[in-house]
Amino acid sequence: MHHIENKSDGRQHNVIPFIPDGEFYFTKGVEAFQKRKFDSSIKWLVKAVEMTPKDNLYKCQLSIIYTEVGSYHEANQLLTKVLQSSDGQYTDCYYLLANNYAHLGLLNDAKKYAKSYLDKEPDGDFCDEAEQLLELIDFDEDENNDWDLEEEDELLIYQETIFYHMDNMEWDKAIPLLEEMMTLFPEHKLTKHDYTHALFFSGYKDDAVEMELDILNDQPDSLHSHVNLAVFFYELGRIQEYERHIKGLLNVYPMHEQQKLRIAVTLARTGVYHEAYARFCKLSKSIVKNHLSYYKWYSVTAYKLGEPSKSLSLWEEGCKKHPNLSQEEGPWNV
């Protein structure tokens, strides 16, 4: 108990301290959220969850704000905990998970949770949204599966050849093939991203940025657009724009190893070494060892973080598998 002495009359007054509870922090968090002060809202709601860990409503509200700021991984961790602790009673979590997985590009998981939501809540608040999400996923799958075997073989040959030229930074050889591929396989979306990447590093920087921004405008959740634009803006010294795109990538954890590698390389080449190192360590080497960029940027990251022996080992191994790497001056000069 605190005591404050009244100097004027010498009397003492007992002051009952205000001890905030979870509801107080939750209310403050919701108020901040309504004002779109997301950083403040997250701080208040994290405190609310800490104060009242069994209140699943607080966790759900916090997950919604994480989704709003693009922290899909953190949102999903909270929602999964809610489902586990409530035996699936918080059914809205199924839709919220589906939405987050769709943003992350994990469409199988998104589909699974959207169907679970509709099974459990056929007349729920998110029915329309869940059905629209399933329609989008089915449309995307139909597009991607609309190939015959002959087309697949031809596509594979193009992809393998372009992959080699891109990995070895042979832009003059990659660009004509990419242009052919965009004509022959217009529905293959990754080609455009490879094309803008090759354009940028061939010196057509403004064209590459403009083209990638156009793609992002049509596909706001495109992982490949955010990867490319993070690199482009970093190289151009437009740091505020770079930070907007790299911030989104920090919260994305793809399922496929090639996508994981793209994010790790992007983090490394833009100086986010600690996060890049964590990503490189989790990669399946047997899958990504055919990428020169794996050895190069993993080696650079290790060197920048004070691990010269590991850096040199990676560089030497990379040179054996990818002779073109030996033409570069080493991780200490990157």
What do you see in this structure?
This protein has a two-stranded antiparallel ribbon. The protein has helices spanning 22-34, 38-51, 56-68, 72-86, 92-103, 107-120, 127-145, 149-167, 171-184, 190-201, 205-218, 223-236, 239-249, 257-269, 273-282, 285-288, 292-304, 308-321; strands spanning 2-5, 12-15. The chain has two domains: 22-145, Tetratricopeptide repeat domain (Serine Threonine Protein Phosphatase 5, Tetratricopeptide repeat, Alpha Horseshoe), CATH 1.25.40; 149-333, Serine Threonine Protein Phosphatase 5, Tetratricopeptide repeat (Alpha Horseshoe), CATH 1.25.40. It is built from 18 helices and two strands. The longest helix has 19 residues, at 127-145. Residues 1-11 have low confidence and may be disordered. It is mainly alpha-helical. This is Tetratricopeptide repeat-containing protein. It comes from Virgibacillus subterraneus. Pfam families: TPR_8 (PF13181). InterPro entries: TPR-like_helical_dom_sf, TPR_rpt.
Question: What layout of secondary structure does this protein have?
Answer:
Layout: E1 2-5, E2 12-15, H1 22-34, H2 38-51, H3 56-68, H4 72-86, H5 92-103, H6 107-120, H7 127-145, H8 149-167, H9 171-184, H10 190-201, H11 205-218, H12 223-236, H13 239-249, H14 257-269, H15 273-282, H16 285-288, H17 292-304, H18 308-321
Antiparallel strand pairs: 1-2
Helix pairs in contact: 1-2, 2-3, 3-4, 4-5, 5-6, 5-7, 6-7, 8-9, 9-10, 10-11, 10-12, 11-12, 12-13, 12-14, 14-15, 14-17, 15-17, 17-18
